[in-house]
Amino acid sequence: MSENIAASLDEVLEGQRLEIERLKSALGLLGVRDCARCKKFYRRADPGTLFDAGSDLICYWCLQDWWTDESPNLDPKDRANLEGKLVYWLREERKAELFKDPAKLPESSLQEFCVVASCLECRGTGKMMGEERCRYCDGRGTVCVVVAKRK
Question: What is the pLDDT of residues 90-121, one digit of tens each?
Fold first, then answer.
């Protein structure tokens, strides 16, 4: 008797799982996708809301924690590519600013998002062709990418 109930529950759960997948697919057709981290749904048409991290979409509000957790686990080449994509996305969609000198960063209370990334111009080497130091990162090889809090 209890085996029949367990089998029945498994069938019900599987049916509900399939129905949820169908609904998610339908929402996707309407341009609504979920964040892979928090599972909240957002419109793809809203600029600066979802970052395309390849296999996952990550909402802006989860991005800092996601990057902190996931970037150390990435292959160095994949990390460099995704980091470059992230920097471009933050600059384009969230109007992030690049700071080559960490001492010149705005106060943390004025920052909404901050990440240290390899300089895209010198690819993190700190040197440019024909020059001793990269002028974009002052030879550090990294830049700070900051999104200011909105007033």
Answer: 999 999 999 988 888 988 888 999 999 999 88
| pTM of full prediction above 0.90 | no
Pair of tokens at residue 115? 């990440």
Distances in Å between the alpha carbon of 150 and those of 31, 69, 94, 110? 27, 26, 10, 9
Strand partners, 58: 51
Is the separation of the CB atoms in 38 and 61 below 8 Å? yes
Who contacts 86 (Cβ-Cβ below 8 Å, separation ≥6)? 51, 63, 67, 115, 117, 145
Please state, in angstroms and rounded to a whole number, the distance separating the CA atoms of residues 51 and 135.
Answer: 29
